[in-house]
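Input (structure):
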């Protein structure tokens, strides 16, 4: 008979929510269409916090990572992003949000991604 020393760790893990969202629904930010935001896929990292992205409107844009995101999220090639095209130059954009792989596949399963960029 083994001593019950790990029961607290099991109980604590049992109460935590699952990151893949199968048990419960969790909210993910979606592009604000009124703000001209859209989904995009990171295609190529160019350095200097600039990334080449392919957008849901089938255009290729140069996106930059703003300073507040630079410290939080590491963007890699193949990541699902929310971008906001510039008003002045439409071929450039700012990155608003980066989805993790789990979040991107969750959006894909719920059919919330446009077919043009649904690679998950």
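Output (sequence):
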């Amino acid at each position: 008979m083994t001593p019950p020393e790990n029961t607290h760790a099991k109980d604590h893990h049992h109460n935590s929510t699952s990151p893949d969202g199968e048990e419960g629904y969790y909210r993910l930010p979606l592009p604000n269409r009124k703000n001209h935001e859209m989904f995009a896929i990171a295609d190529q990292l160019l350095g200097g916090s600039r990334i080449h992205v392919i957008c849901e409107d089938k255009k290729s844009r140069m996106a930059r990572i703003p300073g507040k995101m630079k410290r939080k999220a590491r963007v890699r090639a193949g990541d699902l992003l929310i971008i906001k095209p510039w008003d002045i130059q439409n071929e450039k954009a700012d990155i608003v949000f980066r989805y993790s792989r789990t979040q991107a596949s969750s959006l894909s399963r719920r059919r919330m991604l446009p077919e043009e960029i649904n690679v998950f």
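Notes: Residues 7-24 have pLDDT under 50 and may be disordered. The helical segments are 7-15, 67-70, 101-109.
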